[in-house]
Each structure stands twice: as C-alpha cells, then as structure tokens.
C-alpha cells in the first residue's frame, strides 16, 4: 500500500507532527504509567483502524517490557483478567472518548466517575489529552493511508 501523501516530505506535515508530538511530551510517565499510556494509544488506534499507530505503539510497548498477552488482549479488555481496575477505567474512557458520537454526552457520567476513582485531576487531564492526541494522529495516518509494518522502536524519539 502506498500512502496518499508523503507526510515525511511535507514541510506542513512536519510542523503539524512536531507540534502534536511536543504536546504529547507534556504527559510525563510520572503522571500516568507508561504502560497505561501505551494501552490507551493501542486501543484508540484499534478503534480507528490505524495500522501505522498500532505498529508503532505495540512495538514501543514491547520494547518497554509489556507482555504479548496483555497486548494481544487489548481489544477484549473487558473479558481479560490481565488489566488493573485503573487500566480498565482508562480503556473505557479511551473507547468513549474515541467514539464521541456514540453517546449524546460523548463520555458517560459513569465512565467519567469510574476514571475519577482511579485518577486524580492532573492524571485525568493527562489521560484526556493523550486520548485526544492519539485520535489526532490516528486521523492523520488513516486519512492519508500511511502503511504499517516498518516502524522501529524509538524511531521518532
């Protein structure tokens, strides 16, 4: 598959990606665990059908020590026993925040309250920001049909 646009050759795309990436850098691992951040990125990317981001974030998560079992079960997190209650709350918020049009309030009060049980206000800001950012990256890559499979962990560090 060939990309519709060469985002790596475009000066405008380079600026957009640079600013999106720098916004993501504002979310340190100390606010939300790195493993949770990767699970969130993977789940949103699954929902959005973004192969480029799935390739990147599953490889980055593996390189950071995440297990194949947990990565393979992200799409079925509700039935899987391998996630903490906090991770489940983050994944639910990710799903609802990615599928905003599915509910008239976007994110249900129940999903928000559950996330708030596990994350303080600063962590919720980071989580909501992370969900918004990965959705932006997903849309950029899906619309331009960026191919997946060639990512090397740390390639964009």
Automatic annotation (TrEMBL):
One of its GO terms (molecular function) is peroxiredoxin activity. Residues 21-95 form the Carboxymuconolactone decarboxylase-like domain. Pfam families: CMD (PF02627). Gene3D superfamilies: AhpD-like (1.20.1290.10). This is Alkyl hydroperoxide reductase AhpD.
């Amino acid at each position: 598959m060939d990309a519709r646009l060469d985002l790596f050759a475009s000066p405008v795309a380079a600026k957009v990606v640079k600013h999106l990436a720098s916004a993501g850098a504002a979310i340190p691992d100390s606010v939300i665990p790195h493993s949770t951040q990767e699970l969130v990125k993977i789940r949103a990317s699954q929902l959005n059908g973004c192969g480029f981001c799935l390739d990147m974030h599953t490889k980055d998560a593996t390189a950071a020590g995440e297990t194949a079992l947990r990565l393979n079960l992200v799409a079925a997190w509700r039935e899987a026993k391998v996630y903490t209650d906090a991770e489940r709350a983050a994944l639910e918020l990710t799903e609802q925040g990615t599928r905003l049009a599915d509910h008239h309030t976007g994110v249900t009060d129940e999903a928000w309250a559950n996330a708030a049980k596990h994350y303080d206000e600063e962590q919720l800001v980071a989580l909501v920001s992370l969900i918004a950012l990965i959705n932006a990256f997903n849309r950029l890559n899906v619309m331009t049909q960026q191919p997946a499979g060639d990512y090397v962990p740390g390639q964009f560090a």
